[in-house]
Amino acid sequence: MAPNGLKLDAYIRVSKVAGRAGESFQSPEQQRQRIESWAQAHGHTLTWHAPELDVSGGTMSRPIFDQIMQRIRTGQSDGLIVAKLDRFARTLVGALNTLEEFERHGAVLVSVADNIDLSTPMGKAFLRILLIFAELERDRIKESWEAAGANAIARGIHIGKFALTGYDKGSDKRLVPNELAPAVREAFLMRGAHRTRTQIAHRLNEIAPRPSGGLWTPPMIDRMIKNRAYMGIAYRGEHVNLNAHKAIVTTVEWQAANLAPVRSEARGKLPNLLGGIARCAGCRYVLAPKIAGSRSGGDWPAYNCRKRHTAGVCPEPANINRRKLDRFVEAAWLEQLTKTEVSFQYDSTALQAATDALSTAQEELAAFAADLTARRMLGDGYHAALEARSKAVNDAQAAMQKTLGPATKIETAKSYDALRVEDRKHVLASSIDAVIVKRGHSRIPIEDRVTILWRGEGPDDLPRRGRDNGPVRSYIA
Q1: What is the pLDDT, as a whole number, of residue 122?
Q2: Is the pTM of this model over 0.85?
Q3: How much is the pLDDT for 444?
Q4: pLDDT at 186
Q5: Under-70 pLDDT residues of the chain
Q6: 3-class DSSP string for the chain
Q7: How many CB atoms lie within 10 A of CB 49?
Q8: pLDDT 10s digits, 424-468
């Protein structure tokens, strides 16, 4: 075992919660008790983290686990402790790579149930054997889940933690329309009439408020409109049941809603320089440009945090005078201009399409390269498939280069000032990842409230539209 007096990070993971119970289910509380008892008996100090729920052990990239790894890399932790080895990993290759990194940083892995001692060759060999069986168990569980999913779809059961808006789950676990079904159908009809997702969200906030107290948002409306379950269909992967439950909308209404042109409702005609760039430090969400009122009766343009987001409520909503922030950021950017040459490319539909195609190709390449199952199943053909995806990325890059027109150079502050607001906004967005604004009184110097994250300095997980952004988190410099 590891020597006494270590500072260990306690890690708890549950692959799928979904109402599971019984002896085979190791709940977060059970894992916590086992870890705590062992650590007290051996005199170790523990740092606890939130349990990693509904996260597979088949990948080593997990939010909480990544935080612990960063602590190990920076010397804040002496290692990791888990109740059982399969809580650490269910993939042999990924686990061994991580353990090699542990060794480089002088960190230890403690598995309470398995009593692992990695200081001996026999201990390391025993660990590899356990990891092989953990990976085998993961594959077996995956097959069982697939079979159970196919059986559930055949019986007309909607697979998901919760019933969809507009439905309840009946005694046989099939979806049954409830009192919100008319509101859902109205949302589909509005979309079919080319109403924007923002307009539909406002309407649902009026007639069908979410039980959690949150607000309907355009991305949520988008997911609702695309969900085939509202036509009475249950599906998962290749398994489909066309008559699983009572439909809320007809096939024609669903198709009309999904064929409507995608456009966003204009957020006012206020010219704004940092829309989409300025963010609240309290929640990291984008600040909205608006006209704010003062106690003296005057109005002034501002950037305001919306406070309530899909993921929760901002604990420290920020707002700031828009003109003051624009001037501050532009001055900082112009100072950068003296150090380097800047040019920008006018946007176009073709360029946007080419950029999206490149992003899709890159994501597919990264996902395939990390897919260990595909590597095992394809054997010698894996490298050919990987090369084909790599070629797709190169082709997408070449296609994007063809869509680029002549770049406009900006050599002086005068040439920058001559640009339209839209063009200046484009230039700043290409140079800045985010402008973080802290909550504070207007008398506080702006440089004490604002942090400019230049290109490449911003975190990759800033909240963005159309994706699951997780719980609200504050910005930490």
Answers
A1: 60
A2: no
A3: 92
A4: 94
A5: 1-4, 16-26, 57-58, 90-97, 116-146, 148-149, 160-161, 262-271, 292-299, 337-356, 358-359, 362-363, 366-382, 400-418, 465-468
A6: CCCCCCEEEECCEECCCCCCCCCCCCCHHHHHHHHHHHHHHHCCEEEECCCEECCCCCCCCCHHHHHHHHHHHCCCCCEEEECCHHHHCCCHHHHHHHHHHHHHCCCEEEECCCCCCCCCHHHHHHHHHHHHHHHHHHHHHHHHHHHHHHHHHHCCCCCCCCCCCCEEECCCCCEEECCCHHHHHHHHHHHHCCCCHHHHHHHHHHHCCCCCCCCCCHHHHHHHHHCHHHHCCEEECCEEECCCCCCCCCHHHHHHHHHCCCCCCCCCCCCCCCCCCEEECCCCCECEEEEEECCCCCEEEEEECCCEECCEECCCCCEEEHHHHHHHHHHHHHHHHCCCCEEECCCCHHHHHHHHHHHHHHHHHHHHHCCHHHHHHHCCHHHHHHHHHHHHHHHHHHHHHHHCCCCEEECCHHHHHCCCHHHHHHHHHHHEEEEEECCCCCCCCHHHHEEEEECCCCCCCCCCCCCCCCCCCCCCC
A7: 16
A8: 787 787 778 899 999 998 889 999 999 999 887 888 888 876 566
Give pLDDT, residue 242. Answer: 87
Tokens 């005078």, located at residue: 321
- pLDDT value of residue 445: 92
Q: Name every residue whose Cβ is closer than 8 Å to that of residue 284 and which is 6 or more positions away in sequence.
A: 436, 462, 463, 472, 473, 474, 475
How distant, in Å, are the alpha carbons of 291, 301, 360, 400, 404 from that of 351? 33, 32, 14, 6, 7
Please give the structure tokens belonging to residue 309: 């987001």
Residue type, 353: A
